[in-house]
Design a protein that fits this description.
Chains A, B: GO terms for molecular function: 4-hydroxy-tetrahydrodipicolinate synthase activity. Chains A, B: Pfam families: DHDPS. Chains A, B: It comes from Enterobacter genomosp. O. Chains A, B: InterPro entries: Aldolase_TIM, DapA-like. Two copies of one chain form a homodimer. The first copy, chain A, is built from 13 helices and ten strands. By secondary structure, chain A is an alpha/beta fold. Chain A has a single domain, classed as TIM Barrel (Alpha-Beta Barrel), CATH 3.20.20. In chain A, strand 4, helix 2 and strand 5 form a beta-alpha-beta unit. In chain A, helix 2 runs parallel beside helix 3. Chain A is globular and about 45 Å long. The interface between A and B is medium-sized, with 32 and 33 residues.
Chain lengths: ~280, ~280
Amino acid sequence: MFRGLSAFPLTPLKEGTFDEQAFINLLRPVVDAGVDSLGILGSTGSYAYLTVEERGRIARCAVAHADDIPVIVSIGALRLDDILRLADDAQAAGVSGVLMAPVSYQRLTEDEAFNLYETVTRQLSVPLCIYDNTATTGFTFSDELLFAVAALPNVGSIKLGRVPEDLSQVRARLSDTVTLGIAGDWRAASALQAGFDVWYSVLAGLFPQTALAIARSGNNAESERLEPLWELFRHYGSLRVITAAAEMMGKVAAPALPFPLQSLQGEPREALAKLFVSLELA
Amino acid sequence: MFRGLSAFPLTPLKEGTFDEQAFINLLRPVVDAGVDSLGILGSTGSYAYLTVEERGRIARCAVAHADDIPVIVSIGALRLDDILRLADDAQAAGVSGVLMAPVSYQRLTEDEAFNLYETVTRQLSVPLCIYDNTATTGFTFSDELLFAVAALPNVGSIKLGRVPEDLSQVRARLSDTVTLGIAGDWRAASALQAGFDVWYSVLAGLFPQTALAIARSGNNAESERLEPLWELFRHYGSLRVITAAAEMMGKVAAPALPFPLQSLQGEPREALAKLFVSLELA
């Protein structure tokens, strides 16, 4: 399941609460395009801003509309009891895997992060993807910790925000059952070429055909064509950019993000509107 | 109210839930010592790990046991609706002020942070202290943003984790009604000497007499004496250190922190036990 193209759609809000119909409408073309999995309630799905109850409901909704495509749901939270309830709800909903970042307010120590993954993976009946995202968690995995967590039972993948210099060395220290995934859409083409197994993709959540063309093409040209979009992703955060795109396309109500988060506004939003046309995003 | 020594006690847990009796027992000596305010549910009070309901209950408990000492409660959260409910609950409990950091998962932009403070302060009936804490929020205030937020109605103080090089320049850009507070206990003595108005203190939440001696002495010697303790604070985080101290003193049940957070363990915990004696903490 943790292979190929995994699409991470937005979780659209309307007047501050989950907009189920808009969410279903977002899922439909992604499912029809035939992505390899759906990454629901990832960072792009605003999981950290939603309650345990909302997240359970959204997981059920996603599974109900995913046809045969495996659904992966993030269970990250600050408190263990919330994480375990999210895991229970997700598994009861019928997800195929879960995703978890070491969400921190007090930045976790390495021991604390390891204990967290050990405790959570012990209680799972579906595989887990380790989500390494320093920008949102403030937590940085050392190589040692990452390999130790990856060796825990039920770990099936690692979502990395970087391409290691020596990928073969990383591979050699991972079990064959653990796949390597890339986050940060602008890195995806080169990461897949270097031997990554899966692209955890923001782009694919709204423009699945464009993302599939990159994921299946096996060369960088299609990705390089999108450099003006990647530049916006890097500068403003892919969540703000892709939400602005969905708002402008009329796929979600504006504002679709939880206050105080704001989709792209002003001049860069206008620049994005022009990119739709010039880049032929689909 | 935002002056002198503000004590930030722990919020002790017992088997993962709020331990009201231990909390009251922690407050008593702090109140009796005559600190200038109580900072409830600060970072040291694990606010980010507690539900809105728990935080309302803890605010009411603190006000009920604070005698005449003003109570300040943190209302920080990721979602605006949670923040506003926390503010309502705190005000209904009878707090004298609130404290708010720009809590982030997606790191806020400057516009987002300003909009957040503008929206929240507009709805307050008590003054707010701006809480600048990059280590926990991942958010860094620019000087411009900090001054803009400080000029909003109902802002009464800034809690800074650094001593600006030119304090008089900072003062000149702040209203007379906004006080400057220091966080990071090891910096407090020099910050107070440099002209800060208030010390937002972790130490004072457990060792109020020792903190008062530093706050009232007007020289650095008492603080310098505690350098071995400050070294532990800086290295392991003051929350993990002060919790280990409270656990070892039998004031709270171990583990008192929300999993996966852990108080100081192993060798540094033993070193801390020796410091109690050698530093005569009280």
